[in-house]
Amino acid sequence: MLFDSLGLNSELLSAVASRGYTEPTPIQASAIPAILEGADILGGAQTGTGKTAAFALPIVQMLGEQEITRKRRIPRALVLVPTRELAAQVSNEMNAYARRLSLRSTMIYGGVTIQAQIERLHRGVDIVVATPGRLLDHAERGTVNLSTVQFLVLDEADRMLDLGFIDDIMRVSEYLPKKRQTLLFSATYSASIKRLADDLLDRPRRIEVERKNIAADPVTQAAYMVEKSRKREMISFLIRQGGWNRVLVFVRTRYGADKLTEELLYDGIKTAAIHSNKSQSIRNRTLSQFREGELRVLVATDVAARGLDIERLPHVVNYDLPQVPEDYVHRIGRTGRAGESGEAISLVAPEEKVLLAAIEKLLTYPIPRRTLAEFPEVAPRRSLKIREQKAAAAPGKKKTKGKQPKQAGQPPAGRPRGGKRRPRGAHRQRPAAGAAGRR
Question: Could you say which of 362, 378, 394 is where a domain stops?
Answer without folding.
Answer: 378
